[in-house]
Description:
- The protein is of the alpha/beta class and 460 residues long.
- It has helices at 2-5, 12-19, 27-46, 54-69, 95-106, 125-135, 146-157, 181-187, 203-209, 236-246, 262-265, 274-280, 305-313, 315-319, 324-338, 349-355, 358-372, 409-417, 444-459, and strands spanning 77-78, 82-84, 139-143, 164-168, 174-176, 179-180, 191-195, 214-220, 250-255, 284-288, 299-303, 376-386, 395-402, 423-424, 426-428, 431-435.
- The strands form 4 sheets. The chain has a 7-stranded mixed sheet with strand order 3-11-10-9-8-4-7, with helices on both faces.
- α10 (236-246) links the parallel β8 and β9.
- α3 (27-46) packs across α4 and α5 (95-106) packs antiparallel against α15.
- Bound molecules: pyridoxal-5'-phosphate (PLP).
- Pyridoxal-5'-phosphate binds at residues 145-147, 175, 179, 220-221, 223, 253, 255-256, 288, 299, 388.
Amino acid sequence: MNSVNLRQVPSVEKLVQAVAGAVGLPRRVVAGVARAEAARIREQVVAGGEGVTFAEGVSRVRDELQRLERTALRPVINGTGVVLHTNLGRSPLGPVVAARVGAIAAGYSSLEIDLETGDRGRRAPLVDHLLAALTGAEAVCVVNNCAAALVLVLQHLCRGAGREVVVSRGELIEIGGGFRVPEIMETSGAVLREVGTTNKTTLADYERALGPATAAILRVHRSNFYQEGFTESPSLEALGELARRAGVPLIDDLGSGAMVDTAALAALEHEPTVLESVRAGADLVCISGDKLMGGPQAGIVAGSAHWVGRVRQDPLFRVLRCDKLMLAALQETARAYLSTAGDAIPDVPVLTLLAQKEQVLGDRAAHLVDLIGKQAAVGRGLSRCGGGTMPRSAVPSVTVDITPAGGNVDALARRLRLGDPPVVGYVANGVLKIDVRTVFPDQDSALAAAIGAALATALA
Ligand SMILES: *Cc1c(COP(=O)(O)O)cnc(C)c1O
């Protein structure tokens, strides 16, 4: 009976032949998907179920391949107005930095050579110098991301059993993407010594927790949420003073770590800078490279020469070290800041996008509406910094609002996401909105064409 039923299982070879030409994925991937689909049908048949026609088998394999193909990493147009969009790769690097990364990627580089002697050298030491100059810290070292930076610092300070890190209950936060401060701390072997309450923690709370087992005091920037009302927490200065008296380092997990005054840039709240933390007395400050700094994914540990030097010697530093592409991007991003004079805005896309004037955005939106036609109109919106930064800030922005003639706005949004290039907007009050702030000006014609194509298929 089985042998009869198994004829209802399409042959893998024939499935591959039928599909391979029609999709852009390599034949081996097609074969893998066909094999998995055939196995699924076979199981169904063996269990006494129905098989499928060959055409149905082909269609299932093709659907799965198309689904897979859509997951390819590729450029998209960001019409969400969220500048540091975690799902869209956080900070864009800009053409100058990207060109340098491309040049380093495509060939050999001076990654670990002293070009004067020809001997082996340290890994791109200039990066650390530039970042120290930029942050105002005595010393800097870099790893893969801010989570790694925090784990490195904590693990270094908590080697040995029972070493405690004192932290306020009001700062045991979740950042997103599975980053939970208490879990990160436990991963690193630190014993969490929670003090205070969710809304109030006093200096005396910290003081009472200090003892021979204390390895460090940790302050965590709340990043993506804020507390209002009956709240209290000691200043960083007071914590720094306490840490010094106790003879332990003060770690400040800043997360975004702005390099410029965000309040001067746009209608934004002030985001703490590394320099403020260092001046206040933090010994080790951890920040992300791809949040408000606007560089590549990276974790920067900035602080005193003594503590950063120790952290750099830790064997875990070797495990978490950056690759040459990250280092190239960090080097050029830091240069972009350091070559900016006075109050000028550094040539860093995250900053220039945030600083764009509504008037300029309005002119571009009007031009886009002209190109798209009568289903589009200029609208208003609010841009956000995103990436778990400045939850209280929204910057007034200009949008292109699309009301499809057929009426199905969610279907239009999906078609735009699946277009080429993909365009990601948002739906509000039954209208698809594309915030012009996060669209680069040189993407305008591609955007108009993508919207035109999506509207045309909607009518077809
Ligand atoms: C974002 C953030 C992190 C994690 O940074 P990644 O670079 O994504 O690892 C850690 N701590 C704080 C306070 C943050 O805001």
